[in-house]
Amino acid sequence: MILYCILTSAINAATSAVLALAVYLRRSRTAASGVFVWFAISVAVWSVSYFLWQTAVTNTDAYFYCRLLTAAAITIPVVYFHFATVLLGRQRSVELRAGYVLALVFSILALWSPWVVAGVAPKAEFSYWPMPGPIYPAYLLVFFYCFVVPAWMLVSGFRQARGLRRNQLGLVTLGTAVGFIGGATNFFLWYDIPIPPIGNGLVAVYVVAVGYAIIRFRLMDFDLLVARFVVYSGATLLLALLTPTIFSSLNRWSLTPTLALDFPTLYLASVVSTALLVWLLPELRRRIDSFLEQRVLGRRLADRELLRSLAATISSSTDESALFDEAVDSVAEAIGVPDVAVYTRTEFETDFTRRAVTPAREASGSRHFAGNSPVVRLVQEAQRGVILDEVLHGAVTAERDYFVELRHRQGFELIVPVVGDTFFYGFMTLGPRSGRALYNDIDVSLLEAIGLQIGLNLRARQLERRASQTEKLIALGTLAAGLAHELRNPLVSIQTFSALLKERGADPDFQLEFGSVVQRDVNRIASIVENVAAFAESNKVEMTVVNLPDVLRTVSEIVRPELQRTGIELTLPVVTHSSVRGNYSQLLQVFLNLVQNALQALEGQSGGVVRIGLDLRLTEGQPPLVCVSVNDNGPGIDAAMCAHIFEPFTTTKATGQRQGKHGMGLGLAIVKRIVQHHHGDIDVQSAVGRGTTFRVHLPQSR
């Protein structure tokens, strides 16, 4: 029993100190958290005094530590009384003041007089058990009063509470009952009742339960916290037994004692040294933590990995509707929440509309929230995840009813902002978790990261839309200027001949020439309009897997008559299979246009050759690209022209050479537009007198 008391007092001290530090480092500004820190400290002081008393070897030392633990013990129920009143929002100021005054008086008397602790004497297997002084009954009366009253208050509050608040108060109440029953077993031997302090170890459960209710799963996974504490404490206490056991055995078997220290003192020193050894071995801690995480948080870690992969998926999504649906479904699965919804607005809206929701909530809940509603203001100002249960304890009276309604009628428990850059796009709402589990800091942080990814994606789509509108306006201006230039020449010809029609209308030669010019220029205008329409047409075409060598062979068949007429040689790549994802007809248009441009550049030149190449480009960290090159040994293009070769109405042909559909300067503009729509790129390399090479880069199909 003595060893049990030593071990349990050490565990009680360590548990209380750890939880006091944990709550303090959480930097909570609530009054309940602040009082709990002092409550845990008072339990830690009592436990350390208890440990020193059990390990004392002299009557004087034992008596001193008994007085010290008695002085510390009277502060525990008073501070706990204070904690319960703050937690429940009750006003018991008179009783609290009286309790603190009496605790101070009894502590002074316990330390400096024999009125509370008269001395120590052997009882049961204990060599130094305290004896009660004349005012010890009054001490017990204050002690029990300050436990029974807050316990009754907690039971009443538990019966009236709902939701997570009920869970919190229930846990505090249960912890109080367990800890009180366990700690009360220390009082029986004072009056020679033969019941040893068998419940001393339950004091740690008491502190842990209350600390758990305060931390509310927000510091870390509480299961992992408890598992770490149990494993590390157990391993340390067991390993620490090795050293004193060895020395005790040597003292027993040796004629001359090798060490004069008693077992408890040696064990305490061994516990400290073993704890330091474990702390200084990071590899050991890493392995223990890894094992515990897999055993305690196995399923939860897999769910968190799903959230991390969701963040990566969101960043590359281009469909907003699919993005919202994916986010809602993945969050519901990973967090274990049947009720998840996303509310967003555009940059031109003030109200927030529900964009996606889990099936369990689809038929209920609000579909819109006004931009000035309290919930929107709350999340927008916080810029972080907000748990409504925590908000309710600090909400002002005017908005408390609103949040109560929001929580119980709408089913909201956690609200996470969706922010992109500096623009508040909306928020994601989550209902209660399965099994009434609480949200912890790790889960909230991951959800905040997902909200940020959604916001950044929406921001990117917004910037893309703006850039697209700007690009369209620029393209429209370019088209308008080029179209005016291209149409001016045929219209001038028609206008000139029309002016001469009155004077020379009867002349047969003039009629023939006039008809030829009008037909030529009208066809020219029709070709211009047709090509402009092709340049401006929608890119929403069906995409399939296309084998590029098949496309290039088709190009070769189409231009064969032109090759035979001009004597130009065309070489195709030897590769028989290289696929990309695209539209067959559009890709055929791209490479046919490039080959026809090369043939026109070589027309009238002897020894003309057009070479088509195809190879695969691999770059570390980038998807593989299929590169198709179209090279000719023609006259080339000067650098000034190359810089604008893909702009509409840019051409190397003189006005007199622009016949039919060729030479208007829209072919390469259309080619570039198609290639970009296929998520590829096109570039040109040319020099005067050294030929031209166009290279088309397209993502390889997997």
What can you see in these coordinates?
The chain is α+β, with helices and mostly antiparallel strands and 702 residues long. It has four domains: 2-218, Rhopdopsin 7-helix transmembrane proteins (Up-down Bundle); 220-296, no CATH class; 303-464, GAF domain (Beta-Lactamase, 2-Layer Sandwich); 539-702, Heat Shock Protein 90 (2-Layer Sandwich), CATH 3.30.565.10. It is 61% helix and 12% strand. It has 24 helices and 15 strands. The chain has a six-stranded antiparallel beta sheet. A five-stranded mixed beta sheet has the order 10-12-13-15-14, with helices on one face. A two-stranded antiparallel sheet has the order 1-2. Strand 1 (117-123) and strand 2 form a beta hairpin. The longest helix has 59 residues, at 441-499. It is elongated, with a radius of gyration of 42 Å. The two termini are 71 Å apart. Mean pLDDT is 76; it is low at 216-224 and 654-664.
Task: Supply database-style keywords.
24 helices, 702 residues, Rhopdopsin 7-helix transmembrane proteins, single chain, elongated, 6-stranded antiparallel beta sheet, Beta-Lactamase, 5-stranded mixed beta sheet, 4 domains, alpha+beta, 61% helix
Could you please say which CATH topology of the largest domain applies here?
Answer: Rhopdopsin 7-helix transmembrane proteins
Strand neighbour order, sheet with most strands: 5-4-3-8-7-6
**How widely separated are the two ends?**
71 Å
Report the sheet-strand fraction.
Answer: 5-15%
What's the mean pLDDT score?
76
> How many extended strands?
15
Given as residue ranges, the uncertain stretches (5+ residues, pLDDT < 50) are 216-224, 654-664
Structural class: alpha+beta
| Shape by Cα distribution | elongated
| CATH architect. name of the largest domain | Up-down Bundle
Alpha-carbon Rg, integer: 42 Å
> Treating each run of at least 4 consecutive H or I residues as one helix, how many helices?
24
Q: What is the CATH C level class of the largest domain, in words? A: Mainly Alpha
Q: Tell me the number of structural domains.
A: 4
Q: Considering DSSP H and I runs of 4 or more, what fraction of the residues is helical?
A: 55-70%
Tell me the major beta sheet.
6 strands, antiparallel
